[in-house]
Amino acid sequence: MQGRIFSGIQPTHGIQLGNYLGAIRNWVKLQDSFECIYCIVDQHALNTVQDAAEMRQNTREVAAALLASGIDPARSILFVQSRVEAHSRLAWVLNCVTPMGWLNRMTQFKEKAGKHRENAPVGLFVYPVLQAADILAYRATHVPVGEDQKQHLELSRDIAASFNRRFADGFFPLPEPMIQAEAARVMSLRDGSKKMSKSDPSDMSRINLTDDADAIATKIKKAKSDSILGITYDPENRPEASNLLSIFAALADQSRAAVAAEYASTSFAQFKEHLAELCVEKLAPINAEMRGLLANPTHLDAVLADGAARADAIARPIVDEAYAAVGFT
Ligand code: TYM
Question: Does the CB atom of residue 7 touch ligand 1 within 6 A?
C-alpha cells in the first residue's frame, strides 16, 4: 500500500455528477493501491441541513451512492463522521492553533456566507478546521478531492504544521491533495462559469445519481450550448462546450484531445445525443444498485456501523496521543 487516503463528502443532498467524476470515481480506483477511509461528513453538513429526517435520509442516500459506485467496505472504511468522536475532539485542539486570519481568507466561506456574514453559523467559519481534523485524526497521507477543495487542503497542511511546530515535531504528516485532471471541476449545465453543485436552485443545472434515463437525456439536451460547429476545448471562449467535452472525456475514460478530434465537425445537437447515451450507459447500473441498497436500510446501517468501529480504532489512539502532546491529562 502506498499510503493512507482520507476523503469526505457532505450529505447535503444526493450525489451529483461533479462529485462522482471529480472525486468518487477516483476514490474507487484508489482502493487498489491505498488504505482508504471514506467519510460522510454529517457534522459539516449540519451548517446547512437542519432537519433530522432530511439529514438521516441524505446520509443513507450518500452511503448507498458510494457503495453503488464501487466503494468496497471489505477493503475500505466507509462511515459517518458524527459516529467517531475523534473528529470533534481533535477539531477543538486545532481551533486553538489556527489564527482567525487564515480562516478569513477561505473563499468558500466568503461564497457561502455571502452578504449575510453576521448571520452565518460559527460552524461554517471553522468548517475548514474540522476538515483538517478529519484528515489528521487518521494521519492520512493523501486526500483525493475536486479542485474546489484545494484551498481547504492547503490550510490543512498549514494547520498540521502549526500543531507540529508548537507541540511535537513531525506529529502529523502534511497531507497531499490528489486532484483529477479531466474532471477536477465539472460545471453547471446551465452556466459554464459556475461549478455543478448540489445547492444550485435549478435541478436542470446538474445530473444527480438518482436521475433516470429520461431525466438525464432531457437535462443534456437542454444544457446551454453555442452555435459553433464542432466541439472544441476552449474554456475561455466556449465554457459550455468545454464542460460537456470534459464530462464526455471523463465518462469515456478518454483524453479531451481524443474526444475533441472525434467530434471536430459534429453538430452540438448530435454530440449531446452521444453524450446522453454515454451518461445513461455509465450511470444506469449505479442507479439500479443504489435503489436496491436503499430498499434495505438495515444492511446499509450495518455497513456504516462496522466502518465507524474500524475508523474509531485508528483515530482514537492518534487523538489520545495529540491530547497527551498538548498536556491534557
Ligand atoms: P463536497 O461534499 O462539496 O463534495 C465532495 C467531493 O466532490 C467534489 N466536487 C466536485 N468535483 C468536481 N466538480 C464539481 N462540480 C464538484 N462538486 C463537488 C469535491 O471537491 C469533493 O472532493 N469540504 C468537503 C468535504 C470534506 C472533506 C473532508 C474532503 C469534509 N472533510 C476531508 C476531504 C477531506 C466538501 O464540502 O465536499
Answer: yes
